[in-house]
Write a structure and sequence with these properties.
heterodimer; A: 456 residues; alpha/beta; Rossmann fold; Dimethylsulfoxide Reductase, domain 2; 3 domains; nine-stranded mixed sheet; five-stranded parallel sheet; 35% helix; 18% strand; globular; B: 137 residues; Barwin-like endoglucanases; six-stranded mixed beta barrel; 4 helices; 22% helix
Chain lengths: 456, 137
């Protein structure tokens, strides 16, 4: 008899849908059906048991092929790479749980590594802007229950966060928004007329890379100043019309995405978006939220900020004295300056998602991939360690895009013998401690200077 | 008709890329979802392209051959789009404006039709870039 597991969390995007219903075969080994998930989430669950999985770590051989090895051998190899490296980089973490992130931080501190997460190439700019300008945000539940004006700026949830609009922003009926989308105004700002723009009441086709000017124009109009006839490709009349809607909202939320963070200006685009939000709060209630990508990419920011005081780009080369300076300690910049001499790719695919020039630099040195699946990173690695899929085979804490922690559950067991990210890092940490102890034991006992007792 | 034109390139997620990525980056679905370029009709006409014709896209740091498709999400003239992924990242400049984030959107590329060339697979591009490609796999 098959079994239905309810209220399952989805390990895809930052919306962290937690209403999935997963039907599992009677032997508990196969996922038969997934209800409520989007097309991408659905694929993640079915892929877990639908295809071939790597069940043992694989070590690159001199002829370029992979050879299966045991987890003990893989842990020993990884620990030795980290131990010998002067400045290893441990990067990724978008697709793992907070327990794994905390364990990885122990390893990074012990190894004197740089610890970075996918925000480094995603919403890192948002962190910089938030440090400078604050974050007048809210939870997704507040948006659902209160917001009557929604702005998507440089974000395309129809593709990147497929259920965001139906669960939290445009369509749901909330406590004070009983009419659902009929009582909401939707404004989309994007250089492309995206599928998200299709459901907008007002669409502004901003010139690519000119978001800052348009934010500036909105701020000027909101404060009662004149603006030119056209700003960033948008006519003054339309800017004035939208500014009026923003000011008259009962509760509004600006959701922004990579259109701001990946374009010229980066953190400055986010900075002025926050400033506009702040200005609007002179008239009514406005909030702003980053459309975080992976289901737990908010997690490392929460976990490492608690552990070290910084959310990403953590330089732990001085062990417990953390240092963070994006541009200097960020993964892409470190790679391009050839400043790291070993790379661990965990819960992401730097092989596919880094600019190829950065991949070439990193691959000059040992490269280890910790990931459930075959991906571009695993196929150029020296060592690939397979792990269980968080949210499908491994439970754990994840942080939704609005910084709300959610306990994810597992619906099936991982393939026999396959362990979790957390266990991999805990075992690497243990092995690093052993290597350190072996090194200390090998060192000759220092002769005490005359007149000084040993131990002083 | 121009031999080549210069466009402003952006790369972002598409749902087709997302679904295919979770199925596997070595699958035909990922290949078809990501090894494409979308442009405005004016730019397509300027290059004299027919649907599905292959073009070479070249930036300050590399080039890649992709297929021209007419996307559902329209662009204005002068703007081009490749879904995020392996093909896009062959041309994405790694410069970060000291923030850590590469220039994934808003960088100049030239686009020109090609004959007698093919789109490379994801593995061929990535393994080839680091000297690990061993032929058809």
């Amino acid at each position: 008899m098959s079994k239905k597991v309810e209220n399952v969390g989805c390990p895809y995007c930052g919306v962290c849908c937690d209403d999935l219903v997963v039907t599992v075969s009677d032997d508990g080994k196969k996922i038969l059906e997934v209800e409520n998930a989007c097309a991408i989430g659905n694929q993640i669950f079915h892929h877990a048991t639908g295809g071939e999985r790597v069940r043992l770590p694989r070590l690159r051989q001199p002829d370029g092929t992979y050879k299966d090895i045991s987890y003990d051998e893989a842990i020993d190899y990884a620990a030795n790479v980290l131990y010998k490296a002067k400045k290893p980089l441990i990067y990724g973490f978008g697709s793992t749980n907070c327990e794994g992130m905390a364990a990885a931080a122990k390893v990074a501190e012990k190894a004197g590594a740089v610890l970075d997460n996918c925000a480094s190439i995603c919403h890192g700019s948002s962190f910089l802007a938030i440090f400078d300008n604050g974050y007048p945000s809210c939870t997704l539940g507040e948006t659902k229950n209160r917001a009557d004006v929604i702005v998507y700026w440089g974000a395309n949830p129809a593709h990147a966060h497929p259920r965001h609009m139906s669960r939290y922003s445009i369509f749901p009926r909330g406590f004070f928004t009983g009419k659902g989308h009929k009582s909401r105004k939707i404004i989309v700002v994007d250089p492309r007329h995206t599928d998200t723009a299709q459901v907008a009441d007002i669409y502004l086709q901003v010139q690519q890379g000119h978001d800052y000017e348009l934010f500036d124009a909105f701020r000027a109009v909101v404060r009662g100043h004149e603006i030119p006839d056209v700003v960033a490709g948008i006519r003054r009349e339309q800017i004035v019309e939208v500014a009026d809607i923003l000011k008259k909202a009962r509760f509004g939320t600006i959701f922004y995405g990579m259109g701001l963070c990946h374009s010229d200006g980066r953190n400055h685009n986010v900075d002025i978006a926050i400033s506009l939000t702040r200005d609007l709060n002179d008239f009514t209630k406005w909030t702003i939220m980053a459309m975080r990508g992976h289901y737990n990419i908010t997690g490392p920011g929460a976990v490492w900020s608690w552990q070290y005081g910084y959310p990403y780009c953590l330089d732990l080369t001085k062990r417990d004295i953390a240092h963070m300076n994006p541009g200097e300690t960020s993964s892409i910049d470190l790679a391009m300056r050839d400043e790291v001499d070993a790379f661990i790719n965990i819960g992401t695919d730097a092989g596919a998602h880094f600019p190829i020039d950065a991949v070439k630099h990193l691959r000059k040195h040992p490269w280890i991939t910790i990931d459930p699946n075959i991906c571009m990173a695993s196929e150029i690695s020296d060592l690939h360690i397979p792990v269980g899929i968080v949210g499908v085979e491994v439970p754990g804490i994840v942080y939704r895009m609005d910084n709300v922690p959610i306990q994810y559950r597992k619906v099936i067991d991982p393939p026999e013998g396959v362990i979790s990210d957390e266990e991999v890092f805990e075992r690497i940490h243990k092995r690093l401690c052993e290597l350190e102890a072996e090194e200390v034991a090998k060192e000759p006992v220092k002769a005490a200077p005359e007149g000084v007792r040993v131990g002083e | 008709m121009a031999n080549r034109i210069t466009l402003n390139m952006i790369t972002q997620r598409s749902i087709e890329e997302g679904v295919a990525m979770e199925k596997g980056k070595t699958t035909p679905e990922y290949f078809e979802a990501c090894s494409i370029i979308e442009m405005h009709d004016d730019d397509v006409r300027a290059l004299g392209l027919v649907p599905n014709q292959l073009v070479r896209v070249t930036s300050e740091c590399g080039s890649v051959v992709v297929k021209t498709v007419r996307g559902r999400q329209s662009l204005y003239p002068g703007l081009a789009f490749i879904p995020q992924g392996v093909w896009a990242n062959q041309v994405v400049p790694p410069r970060t404006q000291a923030t850590g984030e590469p220039q994934y959107s808003g960088f100049p590329v030239t686009v020109e039709p090609v004959n007698g060339e093919r789109r490379k697979s994801a593995l061929e591009l990535v393994q080839g870039a680091v000297g690990m490609w061993r032929g058809d796999q």
